[in-house]
Amino acid sequence: MIPAGQRVYAIGDVHGCVVQLRQLLAMMAADDATRGAAETTIILLGDLVDRGPGSAAVIDELIALRERAPATRFIAGNHEEVFLHALEGDEQALRMFCRIGGRETIMSYGLSGPEYERLDYVELAGELQRIVPPAHTAFLQSFEDVIAIGDYAFVHAGVRPGVALSEQKVSDLRWIRSTFLDFAGRHEKMIVHGHTITPEVERKAGRIGIDTGAYAGGPLTALGLEGEDNWVLQATP
C-alpha cells in the first residue's frame, strides 16, 4: 500500500528511447491530472542509456523533468554503472560498455559511425570524456540504489532473497537475475523492478517487473500506484 495522499509512477528501462519517454511522460501527466490532488513521485528504475538511439536526449529530458518536478527520483542501473566507469577511463568498463549498447550512446552525443569505428579504445575514452557534458555525468552520479515507499521497494534489477533491504549489495540491486527471478516467495516489501525484459508487466507474489523491452520494439511501461490500487500506462513504438 502507498501511504495516503501519495501517488507513485515507476518507469521501466528506457534504454535511449526518447520518443517513447516523451509520450509516456505526457500520458502520465494527463493521468495524474485526472486522479485528483496527491503528492506525486516519479521513479525511473535505471538503464536510461544504451541500445536505443537517443541516450543523450533522454538524459536532457530527465534533467529537465527533475527541474520541473523535484520529487522525481532515479535508480542506478547496471548500464549507468558501466557508463560512469567508462567515463572515468576504465578500459575494461569501456570495452564492456561498447558490447552492451554503448556504441549507440556514444553516437547519440554526435560521434558518427565511421568515427567510432576508426578510434581505438584509448582514443575512444578520450573522445567520450570530451563529448559527454559534465552535467550529464553529475546527473548519473546522483542516482539512488533503492527507494522504499509504503509497502513497495523500487530497485533496478532485484534483491537477494532473505537479505534485508538495508543489507542488500549494490551489485545485486543492479545486476541480479535468476536468484531473484526464480524465487517464488515474498520479500520485505513488494519489489518493483526492471532489468529483465518480459513481453508484458510481470506480476508475482513478491515482485512486479516492468521492463517490457522498449528498445527491442516493446512498449515503454509505467506502473502507477496509489493506496491499494495499481495501473499500467504504456507508450508504444
TrEMBL record:
Pfam families: Metallophos
Gene3D superfamilies from the UniProt entry: 3.60.21.10
Swiss-Prot/TrEMBL GO biological process terms: RNA decapping
GO terms under cellular component: cytoplasm
Superkingdom of the organism of origin: Bacteria
GO molecular function: bis(5'-nucleosyl)-tetraphosphatase (symmetrical) activity; phosphatase activity
Domain Calcineurin-like phosphoesterase: from-to ranges: 7-195
Designated name of the protein: Serine/threonine protein phosphatase 1
Organism: Sphingomonas palmae
